[in-house]
Amino acid sequence: GAWLEILAPLNSVAQALEEINSEISLTLQNISQGIFEVKISGSQNLKGVYKEILDNLKKLVTRFQEVIEEIQQISETILEGNLDIQIETSKFKGEYQNLMIMLKKII
Fold first, then answer.
1. Predicted model pTM
2. Distances from the Cα of 101 to the Cαs of 44, 49, 76, 90, 93, in angstroms?
3. Which of 54, 50, 52, 51 is closest to 38 using CA atoms?
């Protein structure tokens, strides 16, 4: 009796954490396949490390989308025959910047 009353709230917390972990895992799997949606149930109520993880996932998706958009714009300009493209590599960091430097060299 008393133990069940004590353990019931812990069980519901564990189930909620398992659901969030599953959704984060699915989101990462989708990102790896080029599907850039971050939908985590109850995300507005997240706090602590889970909020930080979700915020970082959203930043990751936003940055991927920016890089892809930049590459698409460069590609469209090249396809139109315009090779006089200015690529601002300083807008990017790390491997994103290396990618843009490589594109700049190709042009």
1. 0.71
2. 38, 35, 18, 9, 11
3. 54
> Any idea what the Cα angle at residue 103 is, between residues 95 and 35, rounded to 5°?
60
Report how far residue 50's alpha carbon sits from residue 38's, in angstroms, rounded to the nearest whole number: 13
Residues 96/63, Cβ–Cβ less than 8 Å: yes
- DSSP code of 44? G
Q: For 23-76, write each residue's pLDDT tens digit.
A: 888 888 988 998 888 777 666 777 888 888 888 888 888 888 899 999 999 999
How far is 71 from 9, CA to CA, in rounded Å? 49
**Rg for the chain, CA atoms, rounded:** 21
Which amino acid makes up residue 8? A
Q: Residue holding tokens 């790390």?
A: 94
Q: Give the whole-angstrom CA distance, residue 31 versus residue 60.
A: 9
